[in-house]
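Sample intake sheet
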Amino acid sequence: MRPALAVIANVFTIFTLLIAGAASARDLNISAFAGQWQGSGVSESEVSATFSMTARDLNVAIEIQGDNFVVTTTTVQRKKGDPSNPHAVRKTSKREFIPGAKPGVWLAKGNGTPASGQAFTWARIKDQTLTITSVEVNKDGGSNMLIYDRSLTASGMKLEFRRLVDGFLVRTVSGPLIKLAK
């Protein structure tokens, strides 16, 4: 590449990074996450000796309904039976979120109280990440916390899931998702 073109290319790259940095300094609107997302991930578990690492198919639908939004997730887990030929388990959950008292924070419709064994769930957006957190008190009085980070990236969405029991990390799932065409 000729020196003048190299300088122009470097200036363009720096300019692009500055614009991207400035854009990511602001929290996104929930509408940026809307759509049907699909991918796969790897689950790592500290509580399963035979299935400490498994594959998962991931599907997330985020639908905007006025000021509210609905998140529907479907996960296919390969985690039961013979480790060399595991059975698949399909799980689907659906949550509607309504605006909370603070901007950028939503509460799950029909929230329970953690002390009664019902989950208390909320969502927030920080920068380019939609985080959904759910907390409950389990049967023996310990805590169960689920944290789903869904971050928008240049190629789609990245899921980072963590499950903590009594403050100890017992499961993670991470994987990329792509947005399906309408």
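Comment: Residues 39 and 177 are 4 Å apart (CA to CA). The first helix runs from residue 3 to 24.
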